[in-house]
Write a structure and sequence with these properties.
By secondary structure, the chain is of the alpha/beta class. The protein contains 17 helices and 18 strands. The chain has a seven-stranded mixed sheet with strand order 3-2-1-4-18-17-16, with helices on both faces. Strands 6-14-7-8-10-9 form a six-stranded parallel sheet. Strands 11-12-13 form a three-stranded antiparallel sheet, with no helix packed on it. Bound molecules: NADP nicotinamide-adenine-dinucleotide phosphate (NAP).
């Protein structure tokens, strides 16, 4: 028998558990999937936007893995950091540990004013509307009329869309009740999303981009002059290589918006401005709060990048969301490549001083950086599990502990197992019913832990 701990129950952790129990070379692999939170599913629960029900429904297939007879969910157990179990001690309880801890923080912009009140990372906003228990429920008041979203990736599209949606559109989702109340009173009328390069280098995918144009209360505004600056905008001339399909589709959508005539009697009261060739250089301040963003105007440099043109533009905004990518965090006790925000590895085997460390593996964003769609984690996990199974003859029997959960409890931890998670699910359904809604997420630690242990009010 091989006893494996997977740290993290997001898609990469669950796909790792799945690959471990479905491979056929070693039939008796037992997997504990540990998570810092009492709830499973990582970014599928706390990152995928609430109005993306189809992606959210992936939880059903992740659930089937966590209910497998040789998989045990162990929530409310942090690994590494302040009160967390040090990786070294965890390694004493399991034959192998696979770290699937994702990219837990956001990339900084590194410009003046970034920390002003009213300037937030997109991660903070996403955590707030996703009811992450570490996010204060009163973090956002949405008193701003104008918001700037920096970055043109899918996270930027998510936060721009949530700002532009009405609360009525989000009521059927599991958005926590305090956030729904704030969204209902939102004064935001203009959302400006700004990319430092051109539309053909934007990172959003076409489906997500197109969705911005179908919001009932918002219209999308695109400046044709900014599209025209992009070398890929004009039809490719003879002899030029064809545009990648994604770029072509994105440009088609943007062109459609740029050329759309104004609708008479348009009752949509919000606008989403998609802006390009604007590199943020400073967040402006008034009365101690953010008041806008100063951008350097850029132009294509002919090599896929941009150069500054020496001119500047300011966009007024009382709320700024920085959506410039996630970043992996070092886990004390594990090696870390600070330049890439990942753990050094070879085919998933953690490298210490360039040498594979027996029994330590990585998968997901902490292995390859924060890129790709949820499904990308499946092949990533399979590669890591193939390495682990190849190493199995060296690993089996390394652990002296027949019952890691009992040891974790003896260390003063209070794991939440699958039954506890099911209690949280029931409590969220009950909470939703009391509000005349479907299941509604519990947004705080006391509420989650009370529900998990069935010994406290929701
Ligand atoms: P991302 O795709 O890497 O996009 C980051 C954006 O920030 C890019 O436009 C980038 O521009 C810009 N940026 C980076 N540094 C900047 C700086 N210093 N100043 C100005 N702009 C800067 O990251 P993401 O949006 O966080 O998404 C992460 C991953 O999650 C992606 O794989 C994404 O597809 C995925 N995701 C998917 C969905 C979905 O499928 N619905 C939803 C959310 C997230 P440059 O290109 O110029 O660097």
């Amino acid at each position: 028998m091989l006893r494996v701990a997977v740290v993290g129950s997001g898609p990469s952790g669950v796909y790792t558990a799945q690959a471990l129990v479905t491979q056929t070379l070693l039939p008796d692999v037992r997997v504990h999937v540990l998570d810092r939170l009492p709830c499973p599913y990582g970014l599928v629960r706390y990152g995928v936007a609430p109005d993306h029900e189809k992606i959210k429904s992936l939880q059903q297939s992740l659930r089937a893995v966590l209910e497998h007879e040789r998989v045990t969910f162990v929530g409310n157990v942090a690994v590494g950091g302040g009160d967390g179990v040090p990786p070294g001690r965890l390694g004493e309880l399991y034959d192998a540990v696979v770290y699937c801890v994702g990219a837990a923080t956001d990339r900084p912009l590194g410009i003046p004013g970034e920390d002003l009140p009213g300037s937030h990372s997109a991660t903070e906003f996403v955590s707030w509307y996703s009811a992450h228990p570490d996010a204060a429920t009163d973090l956002f008041a949405l008193r701003a009329r104008s918001a700037v979203v920096i970055g043109v990736g899918n996270v930027a599209v998510d936060v721009a869309r949530i700002l532009a949606r009405g609360a009525d559109e989000l009521r059927p989702t599991d958005v926590p009740q305090p956030a729904l109340g704030v969204l209902a009173g939102s004064r935001v009328r203009e959302v400006h999303m700004a990319g430092r390069r051109g539309p053909s280098q934007a990172r959003f995918t076409t489906k997500e981009l197109r969705e911005l144009g179908s919001l009932p209360g918002a219209r999308v505004v695109v400046d044709p002059a900014e599209l025209a600056l992009d070398p890929a905008y004009g039809d490719a001339g003879p002899g030029t290589p064809p545009l990648p399909a994604l770029v072509r589709r994105n440009l088609d959508v943007l062109r459609g918006w740029a050329s759309a005539p104004p609708r008479t009697g348009d009752s949509r009261h919000r606008t989403i401005g998609l802006r390009f060739f604007l590199r943020p250089v400073e967040l402006l301040e008034r009365d101690g709060r953010v008041a806008g963003v100063r951008f350097a105007r850029t132009a294509p440099d002919g090599n896929g990048g941009v150069r500054d043109t020496g001119t500047y533009e300011e966009i007024r905004a009382e709320l700024v969301l920085r959506a410039v990518g996630y970043r992996g965090m070092p886990l004390p006790g594990l090696p870390f490549d600070a330049a890439h925000g990942t753990v050094p590895h070879r085919a998933g085997r953690v490298l210490r001083d360039g040498v594979p460390s027996p029994g330590e593996y990585v998968a997901g964003w902490i292995k390859r950086g924060p890129t790709g769609v949820i499904g990308s984690n499946r092949s990533c996990a399979k590669e890591t599990v193939a390495s682990l199974i190849e190493d199995a003859p060296l690993l089996a029997g390394r652990t002296s502990s027949p019952d890691p959960l009992a040891v974790l409890r003896s260390w003063g931890l209070r794991p939440v197992e699958w039954d506890g998670w099911l209690s949280i699910e029931r409590a969220e359904a009950t909470l939703g019913r009391s509000l005349g809604r479907g299941p509604v997420k519990i947004p705080d630690w006391p509420g989650l832990m009370g529900a998990a242990h069935g010994d406290g009010p929701v």
